[in-house]
Design goal:
- With 299 residues, this protein is mainly alpha-helical.
- It has 14 helices and no strands.
- Helix 3 runs antiparallel to helix 10 (179-200), helix 3 crosses helix 11 and helix 6 (94-101) packs parallel to helix 14.
- 46% of the residues are buried.
């Protein structure tokens, strides 16, 4: 594809990344408990996806038992990622929470090293050190502000661990399942998990204001379907490594939106720590892209 024809895929990537960055703002606007917000985000997503999944009924019926098991685990991990991340936004700022959740590529690298015996490169190691140092700066700054903010940071890091597990299982599932079937099944499992969680802890399902319902629906449409769908569409023309770089815009976009829509001011520790984290992740993703390119050239 000629460079001029790459405009649409790159535009889709930018719009997708910006759409994903609205997630934290919508969660902040909603007054419902974190688990309820997470449930309705996935419930409305599955509801909206259902008509488009009808042509894939044959593939759904043919899913192997092992893939159902992996889908179940992946969906449960995604559910608890949302619970922990949304809950973190009740204690810490949008900037701190989103930047710390953005550490997922490095957590995935650690997971790949531990579970899949992937090689540990010097570049990846140094990138990890930069990101870890940045997260320490953010956490220390938040601790100086309040213990609640630090608790929120810890929840965000735990949410990052959960989403990393979700991606690691998804990496295996996507080798055998189409994107539509994979997301539909995993989102469905996640929605059921969240529903059971809400029932067990006796959160009300319906006693919410109009703004909450608007946020629930927008969370399904904008960051989930629009954001992730556009990114998945553009991967046909843009490398996965480049798509991964799009996640670096999420904390930037979320921080800008939080400043204008929520009146949140970015603290010096967040500026400094966030810069270290984004530099570390950017360096890691760039080195992975370069390694992938070199491998393809040798082939």
């Amino acid at each position: 594809m000629q460079s001029k024809n790459l405009f649409k895929p790159y535009l889709a990537l930018v719009i997708g990344a910006f759409s994903v960055s609205t997630s934290a703002i919508l969660v902040k606007w909603a007054q419902a408990p974190a688990a309820v917000i997470a449930f309705y985000r996935l419930f409305f997503t599955v509801l909206l996806m259902t008509p488009f999944c009808i042509p894939y009924i044959g593939e759904l019926k043919a899913i192997a038992k092992r893939d159902w098991l992996f889908s179940f685990i992946s969906g449960v991990l995604l559910a608890f990622h949302f619970i922990l991340w949304f809950e973190s936004l009740n204690y810490t700022s949008v900037t701190s929470s989103v930047v710390l959740v953005t550490l997922q590529p490095l957590f995935a690298f650690v997971g790949g090293y531990v579970f899949f015996k992937e090689k540990l490169t010097i570049g990846a190691f140094l990138s990890g050190l930069l990101a870890i140092f940045g997260s320490i700066i953010i956490s220390w700054g938040d601790f100086q502000i309040s213990g609640k903010a630090l608790f929120g940071d810890i929840l965000a890091l735990l949410a990052c661990v959960m989403i990393t597990g979700y991606w690691l299982f998804g990496q295996d599932l996507r080798k055998r399942l189409s994107l539509v079937v994979y997301t539909y099944v995993v989102y469905g499992v996640s929605a059921i998990t969240l529903f059971l969680y809400v029932i067990v802890f006796r959160y009300p399902l319906f006693l919410y204001g109009q703004m909450d319902w608007i946020c629930f629906l927008l969370l399904a449409i904008v960051p989930t379907l629009l954001g992730h769908s556009l990114m998945n569409w553009s991967v046909k023309w843009i490398s996965a490594a480049t798509i991964s770089m799009g996640i670096l815009f999420e904390p930037v976009g979320a921080s800008i939106l939080a400043y204008f829509l929520l009146g949140e001011v970015i603290q010096p520790s967040q500026w400094i720590g966030g810069s270290f984290i984004l530099t570390g992740i950017g360096t890691y993703l760039w080195s992975e892209k370069s390694k992938e390119t070199a491998t393809n050239i040798r082939k």
